[in-house]
Design brief:
elongated; 3 helices; alpha+beta; 5-stranded antiparallel β-sheet
């Protein structure tokens, strides 16, 4: 019985060590800034739109969704998106992407979105080695 318990523990520890990479801590100063406004809801909604625009811009610049998929944080809750409030009315998203179905990031992309006009600027789109 002790052998089986040890084997199960070893197997479990082995499996959790090979899971997909996860950011240890996602920084989102955008959501914190939105919460500090007198009416945060419109800001948070705009931030969600900006996250989607940034993700879509990265997909376009990387040859479409057939060849590139931004990391999961860019598909989920806006509170988990890697966003920096630049303090000048723009938000910058920095994230990685991979081949659809893959688990190894192939690109690091940084996109800045104007919070009023939703204009897009691709700041960086670097191949990862």
């Amino acid at each position: 019985m002790k052998f089986i318990t040890s084997l199960v523990t070893f197997t479990f520890l082995s499996l959790i060590s090979v899971t997909l990479p996860v950011r240890s801590k996602t920084t989102n100063s955008c959501i914190e800034g939105a919460k500090k406004t007198s009416d945060p809801l419109p800001q948070i909604i705009a931030l969600g739109r900006a996250k989607n625009v940034a993700r879509q811009a990265a997909q376009v610049v990387n040859s479409g969704i057939e060849k590139y998929r931004p990391e999961d944080v860019m598909h989920g809750q806006v509170t988990k998106a890697p966003c920096t409030d630049n303090g000048d009315g723009t938000w910058t998203f920095n994230f990685q992407g991979m081949v659809p179905g893959g688990s190894v990031p192939i690109r690091n992309t940084t996109v800045t979105i104007d919070s009023k006009t939703f204009d897009v600027k691709i700041d960086r789109n670097t191949v990862l080695k």
